[in-house]
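Need the bound structure for zinc ion, inputs here:
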Amino acid sequence: MGLRRGAGSWPMGYTYLEMKPSVIRRYLKSSQSGGTVLIVSIVALCLAAAVAGGVAIWASAGQEKSPPPDVKVDRYEPAERLPRAMTPEPSAPATSAPAPQPASFDTSLAMSHVAYLSQSIGDREQGTAGESAAALYVQGQLSSYGYAVAAQSVPIPVTGRTTQNITAVLPGTQRPGRTVVLGAHIDTKGGPGANDNATGVGVLLELARVLKINMRQVPTVEFAFFGGEEIASGGSPDQHHWGSQHFLDSLPPEERQQLAGMISVDMVGAGDRFYVNSMGLSRQTLRDMILTLGSARGMTCRQDPGWSDHEPFERAGIPSAWLEYTGGNPYHEPTDVFASVDQSHVATAGSLLQEFFESYLTGERTDQL
Ligand SMILES: [Zn+2]
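Answer from helper R.:
Posting the output first, comments after.
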């Protein structure tokens, strides 16, 4: 029941109509052409003149928002991978336009993603319909923020199933040729995975929204929502990280050269201790920068080796870090539910990363990675 990209389409049965109403509305609204809006407006004006003026205009404005009846997601077929060079360069704002309101990490939006993934979808074991539904949700959210989204099919040899990576690129404003991958895994093991790792996905989605509005990031940020991070069912302890390994392996040489660092956000909603982990296999520059920033914010940051999606990057010599909370929290258990997530932890992780990308990671520090 995995997502079979080889067939060139999404599995039938998943439609935007199964997603959050707000997503559906945004998708349907964006799919309407400006011409349709214009025609509806003209009809409304004629009606108003002929009948009763303002009342008719109000009525037609309401009709304009009615969705067409049969929009299906299988019309939406993202590319396997969009070359970073294809993503549009950030454009300078027009001098006469008012400065846009800066956006801040909104914990309630991040938590709404956690709720949808852990409660509306639930179990998202790699290669199953649950994981595919979550990947589809992530795509819909990123599209609604204005990203071009890529979906990459990933085989899982141990189970014969297929998982997928969902990626989107935000070009850097000063160092567009240097890329920091910001990753979170979509799949779960043994439960609904509210903390592990709906929290990481929720934080990443909210950062994708906020960073794109503000456009303050110096290097390019590639958001990577990995499939198959957990140990495959029936696999040995080192048979995991399928999505992140495949992402790295399939990078064109010139894009791999551009990798400045990788951050995995994995379990940031429960537990009483905050960690910035690395395995010590590559330079510690990125980990040390996050530890320094965390300390400056008054956080007590610990560090420990450990496995998450940063592992393949570290083994490839790329400065990497894994952000997590741990200590007394359930994971890989049916008890890893939404109620166990402390939203203040999600807020802390999200705002730390926003500050890291929008002010701490200057051009000079990017060059040091
Ligand atoms: Zn995890």
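Comments: Residues 289 and 365 are 9 Å apart (CA to CA). The chain has one domain: 80-368.
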